[in-house]
Amino acid sequence: MTPLFWDLCLPCKSIQPPLPRLQPTVLAPLSSISPSISINSSFPSPSVSPKSLFSDTKNIELFYSNARSIRRKTPLLYFVKSLGYNLILLTETWLTNDDSDAYLMGSADDYVVFRKDRTITPEKSRGGGVAILVSPLLHPILIDTFSSDGIETLVIDIHPSIPILSTRICIYHLADWESINNCMSAHDWTLALSSLDADNAFSYFSEFANSVLDTFVPKTTSAPFSRYPKHLRILYGKSQRASIAAPNSVRTIHLVKRFERSLREHSVRIETRVVDSKNPKAFYALCKSRLKSCNSAPPGIVDLDGTHLLSNTDKAHAFSRYFASVSTSPLHGPLTHPTPSPYFTNGIPLTVSPFMKDLGVIMHPSFKFTDHVSKMTSKARAKVNLMFKCFFSSDPNLYSRAFTTFIRPLLEYGSVIWFPHTVTLANQIEAVQRNFSLRLFTRCRIPYSLYPDRINLLSLQTLEHRRFISDLLFLHKSIHGFYSYDHSNLFKLSPLTRSLRRAHSLRIALPFVPPTSHSSFVTRVIDQWNVLSDEYAISSPFNFRSHLLSLPSISFSSDSLLRL
């Protein structure tokens, strides 16, 4: 049978309702467009359970919807994908060239994505765009894309005319291997193969073995795997059946809203579970599943001569021929000789580096930490962006806990070493939390307020105040011997000769460094340490930290470096 070619043209203009009001459309049975599948030439292993690709009863299932901004409907799209449709057609995706395919498929490779986005102009700031998600089993190949007068069109072929491997694929379940062995051993192989040559004998054996498997091994068809709970799938089915019977009825609208609410609650439960686990790997795994595009190669490409290429070898040769035809030989100019290094180890010259990274802190010969602060804040900002892209919740408490668990530690690690003593660096670090709180209020639809009010509502403290607490806690542990290092050049115990009401026996003094310097953590907190009451100065680190957390923030005093 000659396979059919399907040209799918999706114009952007559509009057279809948005997700999830549409029902799937069953097109044609796969058996009518797939070539005949011959007997496998190898004996199937009992341990293999592959999925059947083609059968006489399975149909191509298509889902189509006018998405109207797929960014706002990614949870719903992931749910639709879990239902196992062969084709998912979307119009009005509102995506641009800067958007990754992860908006459509996440990190899974269960679909191949074809897109035609609208070119954004001053007259057309948003809208448009079409996309087709195709199962790799249909061997899709992109034919052409074009746009005209605000209409985007995408043309693909599915199941092109290519030779299919001679393979029979079934799912084996509860095999009666004892009966199979008895049947194979009872057969007279000498008589059956005596008059056959090698090729015919091999074909005879394969057909006999497969017939035995058909007799004694039941075949089952498994439903598409879904990571969503059963009640969600049931609710979705009810909403679809209701939309078919009466699309605009009150019951249909109620079921659709109920399904969307349940789907949103399911996504929030997953996010809450990840945040409560306090596991960075779980956080990145969730973000990867929702954002990172898969690395799978396209199932088929069209060569320059119009040939459809499906195998990886043919694709590699085609790319090699194309690159060879358009590339030129590199022109090498005179290379400058590198300055030889004056340092050697066993005769090997050492590379001179302007900085070094020790235990995660970038150190410079000048002991300035501008580069470290810049890299640290960039990483924290990227993680904030990642969180707001991946999380669908509108609970401010969830975002606040996620920030304190996965992002704030990046801004506080080793702060005793790299403490910012300039206004610029202090505000650069604080800007991360300032931006986070502002975006949180926008996401959760909380009225705008100033930064001090925002962090007070979220039960957060300024990062400057938390660095102050870290300095005091480090000094407390150093005095009580929790850290073993020589601190004689940093501070020395200097108890008063006369008793004061707020004095304690662990007062310190600076041996060398002037009190106005900020190069040492001791100079930054000596005044606050010496005025502590004796009760807290001699307490355990846990009680001392609890006391520090109850103190008013220094960020609202005249000593603060922040611009609030």
What is the element layout, followed by pairings?
Layout: E1 25-29, E2 59-66, H1 74-82, E3 87-91, H2 102-105, E4 112-116, E5 130-134, E6 141-148, E7 151-157, H3 177-186, H4 189-193, H5 198-216, H6 230-245, H7 250-277, H8 280-291, E8 301-302, E9 308-309, H9 312-326, E10 344-345, E11 348-349, E12 356-358, E13 361-363, H10 370-390, H11 396-412, H12 415-418, H13 423-443, H14 451-457, H15 463-479, E14 492-493, E15 508-509, H16 521-530, H17 534-537, H18 541-549
Parallel strand pairs: 2-3
Antiparallel strand pairs: 1-2, 3-5, 4-5, 6-7, 8-9, 10-11, 12-13, 14-15
Characterize the structure shown:
A hairpin with a 2-residue loop joins strand 10 and strand 11. With 564 residues, this protein is of the alpha+beta class. It has a 5-stranded mixed β-sheet with strand order 1-2-3-5-4, with no helix packed on it. It has 18 helices and 15 strands. The N and C termini lie far apart (75 Å). Among the domains are: 40 residues, no CATH class; 61 residues, no CATH class; 31 residues, no CATH class; 105 residues, no CATH class; 92 residues, no CATH class.
